[in-house]
């Protein structure tokens, strides 16, 4: 009897490449002949410094990060950045500064609520009255000319809504993008953004690591109350080692970056992600047994929420999926239904297995 392959559709913490986990397992007790686990190393020792430097260099290459941007490894997650970003940028303007937000779902909603503790928040556009099923067209946005910055969430993990454009902004208004759930899934032009941040646990590595990519001129505007450990300038000056960084999470992220390079880089991943998403949405659209409510042009390639027409069958659907090795398909509690997250580490075989199950379940 052969074991059923397992495919994990969790939204986060999420599936990691099997090769990465295997390599980490083989290096667990003795990293490269050092006699130590990466978990046991000083973050200031030559072994860990080499791991850190390689991870930063590989990420810079993968995302084509321009030289005038710093790559920071922080803690505190995406929600931590909801406070850390305004604490670092609100000082760009006379107090109280105004920050523009586009409200496209749960995560941008949390971000704007938190920022309101440090600044005036202007909701420049919102898709709330459409139940967060689309990105409002840029022509409808009411941007503030002298906002400290514009915050957008370019992939709403819970609502399954993804931007398909980079916004146009007034000359001195940087874009801050929460890319937690789709970073490294598609080619981006980093130079169009002032700050990009992402919790690692969706598409990078383990929970506990937060990636921040910040343009150098934006390091200078923190509010005096910004905690030192969260002050980007301080973190940058100390190469992310002002305090102890999440060393093991950085190591795993580095293995993921190396894996991505072996897969052909971000452009190659994007092609695979397009194909995976096409396959899954086609199956959902083919049968009115299932429903995805997001506007077609804003459907996320990473997070695919869907509903069964007959919600009474939800438990049966999930039990049948689990029996086939298709795990963690239950939707977020705030929206119900189902959600399949198909990050970089989800192979097309996993999406095909889900599609086969969708067809079989609808047929029954
Ligand atoms: C998961 C997620 C977050 C929250 O991250 P935490 O690490 O739990 O704080 C923020 N933004 C987006 C878009 C996410 O998907």
From TrEMBL:
Which SUPFAM superfamilies does the entry link to? PLP-dependent transferases (SSF53383)
Q: What's an example of a GO molecular-function annotation for this chain? A: O-phospho-L-serine:2-oxoglutarate aminotransferase activity
Can you quote the record's cofactor note?
Answer: Binds 1 pyridoxal phosphate per subunit.
User: What coarse category fits the chief subcellular location reported for this protein?
Assistant: cytoplasm
Where are the N6-(pyridoxal phosphate)lysine residues found in this chain? 202
Which reaction equations make up its catalytic activity? 4-(phosphooxy)-L-threonine + 2-oxoglutarate = (R)-3-hydroxy-2-oxo-4-phosphooxybutanoate + L-glutamate; O-phospho-L-serine + 2-oxoglutarate = 3-phosphooxypyruvate + L-glutamate
Q: Which residues form the Aminotransferase class V domain?
A: 6-354
Q: Which InterPro entries match?
A: Aminotrans_V_dom, Aminotrans_V_PyrdxlP_BS, Pser_aminoTfrase, PyrdxlP-dep_Trfase, PyrdxlP-dep_Trfase_major, PyrdxlP-dep_Trfase_small
Q: Name one Pfam family in it.
A: Aminotran_5
The record lists L-glutamate as bound by 44
Known EC number: 2.6.1.52
- Name its pathway: Cofactor biosynthesis; pyridoxine 5'-phosphate biosynthesis; pyridoxine 5'-phosphate from D-erythrose 4-phosphate: step 3/5; Amino-acid biosynthesis; L-serine biosynthesis; L-serine from 3-phospho-D-glycerate: step 2/3
> Could you tell me where this protein is found in the cell?
Cytoplasm
Q: Which residues cross the membrane?
A: none
Cofactor(s) this protein cannot do without: pyridoxal 5'-phosphate
Entry keyword annotation includes Transferase: yes
List UniProt keywords, sorted A-Z.
Amino-acid biosynthesis, Aminotransferase, Cytoplasm, Pyridoxal phosphate, Pyridoxine biosynthesis, Serine biosynthesis, Transferase
Which top-rank group of organisms is this from?
A: Bacteria
Q: Where does pyridoxal 5'-phosphate bind?
A: 107, 157, 178, 201, 243-244
Q: How does it assemble?
A: Homodimer.
Q: What does this protein do, in the record's words?
A: Catalyzes the reversible conversion of 3-phosphohydroxypyruvate to phosphoserine and of 3-hydroxy-2-oxo-4-phosphonooxybutanoate to phosphohydroxythreonine.
- Mind telling me which HAMAP family this protein's record contains? SerC_aminotrans_5
Q: What family is reported?
A: Belongs to the class-V pyridoxal-phosphate-dependent aminotransferase family. SerC subfamily.
Q: What is the name attached to this protein's record?
A: Phosphoserine aminotransferase
């Amino acid at each position: 009897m052969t074991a059923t392959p397992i495919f994990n559709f969790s939204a986060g913490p999420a599936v990691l490449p099997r090769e990465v986990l295997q390599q980490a397992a083989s290096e667990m007790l003795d990293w490269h002949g050092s006699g130590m686990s990466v978990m046991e190393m000083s973050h200031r020792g030559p072994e860990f410094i080499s791991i850190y430097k390689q991870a930063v260099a590989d990420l810079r290459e993968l995302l084509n990060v321009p030289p005038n941007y710093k790559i920071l490894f922080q803690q505190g997650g995406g929600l931590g950045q909801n406070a850390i970003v305004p604490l670092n940028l609100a000082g760009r303007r006379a107090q109280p500064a105004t920050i523009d937000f586009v409200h496209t779902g749960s995560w941008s909603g949390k971000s704007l609520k938190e920022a309101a503790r440090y600044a005036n928040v202007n909701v420049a556009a919102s898709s709330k009255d459409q139940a967060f099923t689309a990105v409002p067209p840029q022509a409808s946005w009411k941007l503030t000319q002298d906002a400290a910055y514009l915050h957008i969430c370019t992939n709403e993990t819970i609502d399954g809504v993804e931007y398909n454009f980079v916004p146009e902004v007034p000359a001195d208004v940087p874009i801050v993008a929460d890319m937690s759930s789709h970073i490294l899934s598609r080619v981006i032009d980093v130079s169009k953004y002032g700050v990009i941040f992402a919790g690692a646990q969706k598409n990078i590595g383990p929970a506990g690591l937060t990636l921040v990519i910040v343009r150098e001129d934006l390091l200078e505007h923190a509010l005096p109350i910004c905690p030192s450990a969260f002050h980007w300038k301080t973190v940058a000056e100390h190469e992310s080692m002002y305090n102890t960084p999440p060393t093991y999470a950085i190591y795993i992220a580095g293995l993921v970056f190396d894996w991505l390079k072996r897969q052909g880089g971000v452009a190659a991943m994007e092609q695979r992600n397009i194909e995976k998403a096409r396959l899954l949405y086609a199956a959902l659209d083919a049968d009115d047994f299932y429903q995805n409510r997001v506007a077609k042009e804003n459907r996320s390639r990473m997070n695919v929420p869907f509903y069964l027409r007959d919600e009474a069958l939800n438990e049966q659907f999930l039990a049948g999926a689990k029996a086939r090795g298709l795990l963690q398909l239950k939707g977020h509690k705030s929206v119900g239904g189902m959600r399949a997250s198909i990050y970089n580490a989800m192979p097309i075989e996993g999406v095909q297995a889900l599609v086969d199950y969708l067809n079989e379940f609808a047929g029954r």
